[in-house]
Every structure is written in structure tokens, then in C-alpha cells.
Amino acid sequence: MKFRFNFTAFLVFIIFLIIEVGIGVFIHDSFIRPWGGDFLVIFLIYYFAKTFIKTETLYLIVAVLLFAYAVEIAQYFKIADALHIKNKILRIIIGTSFSWGDLPAYSFGGICCYLLENRINNHKTPDKKRIF
Domain residues of the chain, as ranges? Predict the structure, then answer.
């Protein structure tokens, strides 16, 4: 594992951040907001971490999934209330409601993120360098 700044991963993170904020602000349905947002948040966290950490794709995705599961478990125990967090934005980021359905959405997001990264990394540029 190495620390460095990956500008491409940072741009992808920004794109996913904009999508997630858009879902949170403009989408109020029973499918995209709860399932799509949880699916895409794995990509968001993965590309944020990839911006600063160079390691094997699988290791990073497993770490992201474990982090997402831990946050969901913290929501089960009402961590935002236990810490007396009143800031609305921070409560949104941490989350305030546990859902069993979030766990498979995270898992599916992790699998798709892994498959996407493998596909990108297996299509090397002519000089045998990786794209990301």
C-alpha cells in the first residue's frame, strides 16, 4: 500500500459525489433513493479512498465494504443520537436509520465496483500502463 494523489480517481469521486447529492436532494422515490444511493455510495467511498491509497483493488473494496457495514451497524445502535449530533448535514452523512436492505445494496455495489475496476485495469493502454 502506498499513499499518493490520483487525480483521475478524484474526478470520478467528484462525479459520484454530485450524483449522490442529486439523489439525496431531488429524488424522493422508493427505489432509486434507498437502493441506488446505497449501491453508488460504495463507488463514492472507493474512489475517494483510491484518490489517496494505491493498493490492490480487492483489498480496497473489501475495506470499503467493511466500513459501509460498520456505519450501518452504528446506525442500528443510533450512533448519531448517542453522540448527541445535532448538525443536519453530519446526521445525513452518518445516517440515522438502520435497514437490512442496505447491506445487500452495499454488497452488490462492491461486486460491481470490483468488476468495473478489473475491466478497466485489464484494458491496458498501448504502452502497457494502466488507465487508473
Answer: 2-122
